[in-house]
């Protein structure tokens, strides 16, 4: 990865990171720092990072503005070449980045962290391939006129990242922004900043200084200052709906561009013809239990048709009981750790609240069988059945390994329940009858619907939410064009 000391649990000293501004690795202007613990061991500070403030934002924005014009002026093949070289280096570093992801997010190496690191490298390769698609059009205006459009970059883009899968979410934003000629300033999550800083080390070798900046620190300090800065042309935010709403208001107030990837409470609908082991495996992927449920696209509301309800649930419980909750660095582990105490308490609060509800059934509670715990933030998966779609656990995003199972009878009824949510990020439909599956998929109000599969994220797909789950799309050609470029029209009189 790089020659400096990379954090480990065993290291006697935390790694002292700096942040990237204008091609230099710097401290915060006022010298303040913050400590990063690992969710594997709450007592272990694995790293320190600068605690950036408004002055650092000024510096980063000035550097980005200086760099952006030259970067945008390059022939597209040069930006393409840079991204391809970054992709090569990221592939070489993938195993190290995966190990660091396991350490700073708690995401298990085999099931999550490694795929996230590999996805990042593929994203750089994919967007490098799109460099030539940043094309304009010409109007057939006759021989006396030339009427053409250009796709020009938005300018300086702030990318605000959450802690749950930092590399994957950076992959949604960074290569698309860069290849289309923008400069990007990433704000890493305070709880999981280290992989983003390592990503920046790889990228800076191939980019002009200032084209990529990385700031670390607290959201209400450095994040807010970035969002409000007049030199930031666009804010691309991923995080909670509450924070995103404030970010959109602050950016909107000064008429900056904004895109938002927010939370979800996604439905997962199983039709009567799909009571099979294979579908159980896919539903298991959809639960995102393997990321401790800390996924905005988790299929956290499982709608089981009443005719297969008991049989499907039995199979699912059997399968979930085989999952290994353990040290995220171990290959054998399926489910790692929750990010921090606050999130662990939040998940537990939802569980306690649900268990006190009349009529709820506990289909599976893995807590008694847990073999790991203190000092890590481990939480076993839970499946709660006979849930009412109106209950709090079926309406609010828990962001933990808790699945609500809801029975249904009629197709219209299940579609209505699926859509009875202020969220609209993802959805999953399982039916062997493809007519039924596709009809339902089209009726569900979600930005991303998967049919007969539960994982399946791929580079090039449009990613983003409807309703309170967000605005704008990322990760695709359309997302790149709409999110990171704007059209300039040029009309020329030729006579
Ligand atoms: P937050 O919304 O709290 O934070 C997201 C990012 O925004 C962090 O970097 C945070 O900084 C920063 N931030 C906080 N306050 C401000 C502010 N006032 N101005 C600018 N930036 C700010 O979410 P979490 O990090 O807690 O992530 C979990 C949530 O994110 C989940 O609830 C989930 O719904 C959502 N999410 C959505 C995804 C999607 O693609 N739709 C993907 C992943 C998560 P700091 O690190 O200091 O808190």
UniProtKB/TrEMBL annotation:
<dbReference type="GO" id="GO:0016620">
    <property type="term" value="F:oxidoreductase activity, acting on the aldehyde or oxo group of donors, NAD or NADP as acceptor"/>
</dbReference>
<feature type="domain" description="Aldehyde dehydrogenase">
    <location>
        <begin position="25"/>
        <end position="489"/>
    </location>
</feature>
<protein>
    <submittedName>
        <fullName>Aldehyde dehydrogenase</fullName>
    </submittedName>
</protein>
<feature type="active site">
    <location>
        <position position="261"/>
    </location>
</feature>
<dbReference type="InterPro" id="IPR016162">
    <property type="entry name" value="Ald_DH_N"/>
</dbReference>
<comment type="similarity">
    <text>Belongs to the aldehyde dehydrogenase family.</text>
</comment>
<dbReference type="InterPro" id="IPR016161">
    <property type="entry name" value="Ald_DH/histidinol_DH"/>
</dbReference>
<dbReference type="Pfam" id="PF00171">
    <property type="entry name" value="Aldedh"/>
</dbReference>
<dbReference type="InterPro" id="IPR015590">
    <property type="entry name" value="Aldehyde_DH_dom"/>
</dbReference>
<dbReference type="InterPro" id="IPR016163">
    <property type="entry name" value="Ald_DH_C"/>
</dbReference>
<keyword id="KW-0560">Oxidoreductase</keyword>
<dbReference type="InterPro" id="IPR029510">
    <property type="entry name" value="Ald_DH_CS_GLU"/>
</dbReference>
């Amino acid at each position: 990865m790089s020659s400096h000391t990379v954090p480990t649990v065993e290291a006697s000293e935390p790694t002292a990171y700096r942040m990237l501004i204008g091609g230099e690795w710097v401290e915060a202007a006022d010298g303040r720092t913050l400590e990063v613990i690992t969710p594997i061991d709450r007592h272990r500070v694995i790293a320190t990072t600068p605690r950036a403030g408004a002055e650092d934002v000024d510096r980063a924005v000035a550097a980005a503005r200086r760099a952006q014009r030259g970067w945008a002026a390059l022939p597209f093949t040069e930006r393409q070449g840079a991204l391809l070289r970054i992709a090569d280096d990221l592939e070489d570093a993938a195993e190290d980045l995966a190990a660091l992801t396991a350490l700073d997010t708690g995401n298990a190496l085999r099931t999550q962290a490694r795929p996230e690191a590999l996805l990042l490298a593929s994203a750089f390769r994919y967007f490098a391939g799109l460099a030539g698609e940043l094309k304009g059009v010409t109007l057939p205006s006759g021989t006396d006129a030339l009427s053409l459009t250009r796709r020009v970059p938005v300018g300086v883009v702030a990318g605000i990242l959450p802690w749950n899968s930092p590399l994957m979410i950076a992959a949604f934003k960074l290569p698309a922004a860069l290849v289309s000629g923008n400069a990007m300033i990433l704000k890493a999550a305070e709880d999981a900043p280290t992989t983003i800083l390592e990503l920046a080390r790889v990228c800076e070798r191939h980019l002009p200084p200032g084209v990529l900046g990385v700031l670390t620190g607290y959201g209400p300090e450095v994040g807010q200052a970035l969002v409000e800065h007049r030199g930031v042309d666009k804010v691309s935010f991923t995080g909670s709906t509450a924070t995103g709403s404030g970010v959109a208001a602050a950016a909107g107030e000064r008429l900056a561009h904004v895109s938002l990837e927010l939370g979800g409470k996604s439905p997962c609908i199983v039709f009567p013809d799909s009571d099979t082991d294979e579908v159980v495996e896919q539903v298991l992927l959809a639960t995102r239990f393997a990321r401790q449920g800390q996924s905005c696209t988790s299929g956290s509301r499982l709608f089981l048709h009443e005719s297969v309800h008991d049989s499907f649930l039995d199979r699912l419980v059997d399968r979930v009981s085989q999952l290994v909750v353990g040290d995220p660095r171990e290959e054998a582990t399926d489910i790692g750790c929750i990010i921090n105490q606050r999130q662990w308490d939040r998940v537990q609060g939802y569980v306690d609240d649900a268990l006190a509800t009349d009529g709820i059934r506990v289909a599976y509670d893995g807590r008694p069988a847990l073999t790991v715990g203190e000092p890590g933030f481990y939480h076993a998966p839970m499946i709660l059945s006979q849930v009412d779609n109106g209950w709090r656990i079926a309406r609010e995003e828990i962001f933990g390994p808790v699945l609500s199972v809801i029975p249904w009878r009629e197709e219209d009824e299940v579609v209505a329940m699926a859509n009875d949510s202020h969220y609209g990020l993802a959805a999953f439909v399982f039916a062997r009858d493809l007519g039924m599956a596709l009809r339902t998929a089209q009726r569900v109000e979600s930005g991303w619907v998967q049919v007969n599969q539960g994982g399946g994220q791929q580079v090039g797909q449009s990613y983003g939410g409807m309703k309170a789950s967000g605005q704008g799309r990322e990760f695709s050609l359309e997302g790149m064009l709409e999110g990171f470029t704007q059209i300039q029209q040029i009309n020329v009189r030729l006579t």
